[in-house]
Design goal:
Layout: H1 3-17, H2 22-33, H3 43-56, E1 60-64, H4 70-76, E2 84-89, H5 92-104, E3 111-115, H6 118-127, E4 133-138, H7 145-154, E5 156-165, H8 181-195, E6 199-208, E7 211-220
Parallel strand pairs: 1-2, 1-4, 2-3, 4-5
Antiparallel strand pairs: 5-7, 6-7
Helix pairs in contact: 2-5, 3-4, 6-7, 7-8
């Protein structure tokens, strides 16, 4: 199997089942034109997030790592009237691009984009009693994943869903001796989930247009 095959399969299913509209295509294109790294979720992964939020019946969503707002649009479109999505972005340039993309999608009234380090924004959300969030999507700097998990648990309740992206690291996650802080962050994130009495979870490896990676899906049980 090859990257060419993975991309062709994604293109086939996306053409039938995902079908990005102008707002999503423009969000991806404008993010690229603005010099943002091309690390947003793939279209089928965005649709998966949308479906997870809808299956959960989410009214409150927390996203850690906005980038250009592509995944934010997918998630916000799952919200009912009166729903709310809080998304955290540390880079002001990324946040400005995301704000424009979200507004063009007609979702500005649902999205609260907060600029600054998530390590600062998360305690503020807790102090505001902004939760419980029904779904949390963690897609930011991997060394901080363990901290993001701990805050996610403080901001969720029974039945909440936590999704952690990019956890396979091209397979490097299996190497305990790998000193890449991203690998170590993901390993500790996974260990904390495995040890936590309030969580049950699984991790799924993925291949596709974004190459080889995977995500962790956790359910808060108590």
């Amino acid at each position: 199997m090859s990257q060419q095959t993975w991309t062709a399969v994604d293109d086939y299913f996306n053409g039938l089942l995902v079908q990005e509209d102008d707002a999503l295509l423009s969000a991806a294109g404008d993010s690229d034109a603005a010099g943002l790294p091309q690390i947003q979720v793939a279209p089928n992964q965005g649709k998966l997030l949308n479906l997870l939020a809808r299956i959960r019946g989410a009214r409150r969503i927390l996203e850690i790592g906005t980038l250009g707002g592509y995944s934010t649009i997918w998630l916000a479109r799952a919200l009912p009237d009166g729903g709310r999505l809080v998304t955290l972005e540390s880079d002001p340039h990324y946040a400005a691009v995301a704000t424009a993309n979200i507004a063009r999608a007609g979702l500005g009234h649902l999205v609260d984009l907060r600029v600054g380090k998530a390590q600062d924004s998360l305690p503020r959300l807790a102090a505001e009693e902004a939760g419980p969030f029904d779904l949390v999507f963690i897609d930011a700097d991997k060394p901080s994943n363990p901290e993001y998990l701990e805050w996610s648990l403080k901001l969720t309740g029974p039945g909440s869903v936590i999704v952690g992206d990019n956890v396979v690291r091209d397979g490097a996650v299996t190497d305990a001796a790998d000193d890449d802080p991203r690998v170590q962050g993901v390993r500790r994130f996974t260990e904390l989930i495995a040890e936590h009495p309030r969580l049950t979870a699984t991790t799924v490896q993925t291949v596709g247009t974004k190459g080889y990676d995977g995500f962790t899906l956790a359910l808060v049980t108590a």
